[in-house]
Amino acid sequence: MLNHLFIAAAALAVTGTAAAQAYPSQPIRVVVPFPPGGTVDVTARAIAPALTEILGQNLIIDNRGGAQGLIGTDFVAKAAPNGYTLLLGSNSTLSVAPSLQKKSPYDPIRDFAPISLIGMTPFVLVVHPSVPAKDMKAFIAIAKRKPGTFTMGSGGVGHLVGELFQSITGTNFIHVPFQGTGPAGAALMGGHVDLLFDQLANSVAQIKSGKTRAIAISSKERSTVLPDIPTMAEAGIGNFEVTSITGLLAPAGASREIVGRLNEAVHKALATPAVKSRFSSMALETIPGSPEAFAAYIKEDFSRWTKVVRDASIPLN
């Protein structure tokens, strides 16, 4: 009897190992819960070719925008945990959107199996060229002289970054939400809003072309891509180091083997010269890590932005 049990257990172990080795055996859908054009979207498209080559299966980028990223993220949360539907997550969908809901359709901590962090970029305060302020001192002076005059667009975590900025500086902007950073950036360039707290990776091209003007970035040190832009600390805004991350997640319940296979693939992809070069050109820093490290980050970041929402008395949806 014991021999039969041992043989059965061994057979199950072999079957599990074979299944893990066989993964993936079909294309993998990576859901980007925003319209094309934002940092999450360009990150997905920058790393997808390398992951396709490493995994031996096509990665299909599926843009499912709407409701500040809630729709696409919830779609993945409720998908089968077989490794063929993944999420390219960010602070917007893992921290900000759920913290702004009375009842979020998903739990960012319990409903996902984090795979690996991918990239990080600071935020940048960008304004439309018609805004007369050329530096932070002038910008704050105008904002305080005429409270509620400036309109602030947002397409995700930038909303709460803006709220944090207002609480620190004593300014007051009119918030105008959009369904992603891509549409928010387009509105800024079109002069429909005055300012935006955007991921630097999403704003580099517009800043360089003069379509928008950068006031300061939220990193500890200046960007090597745009070295003339001062940090928030240099501009006189203390305690304002804020970064935006992207990372790959599977639905909760994904096997350890699948998560491990994908984590290994992400690390290999981020180490390739092509991906490194692409990320660098977009002011993105690669930050691969363990599933456990990503899970800890999500928990801490969700707590941070929930506090910002509470402290700023932002109405919940």
Proportion of residues in β-strands: 15-25%
Radius of gyration: 21 Å
Please report the total strand number as a whole number.
10
The shape, in one word, is: globular
Number of domains: 2
H/E element string? HEHEHEHEHEHEHEHEEHHEH
Number of helices: 11
CATH architecture grouping of the largest domain: 3-Layer(aba) Sandwich
What is the helical fraction, as a range of percent? 40-55%
Identify the CATH class of the largest domain: Alpha Beta
CATH fold-level label of the largest domain:
D-Maltodextrin-Binding Protein, domain 2
The major sheet is characterized as:
10 strands, mixed
The CATH H-level homologous superfamily of the largest domain: Bordetella uptake gene, domain 1
Q: What order do the helices and strands come in, and which of them pair?
A:
Layout: H1 2-22, E1 28-32, H2 39-55, E2 59-63, H3 70-77, E3 85-90, H4 91-99, E4 112-127, H5 136-145, E5 151-154, H6 158-169, E6 174-177, H7 181-189, E7 195-199, H8 200-209, E8 213-217, E9 243-251, H9 256-270, H10 273-281, E10 285-286, H11 291-311
Parallel strand pairs: 1-2, 1-3, 5-6, 5-7
Antiparallel strand pairs: 3-9, 4-7, 4-8, 4-9, 4-10
Helix pairs in contact: 2-9, 2-10, 4-11
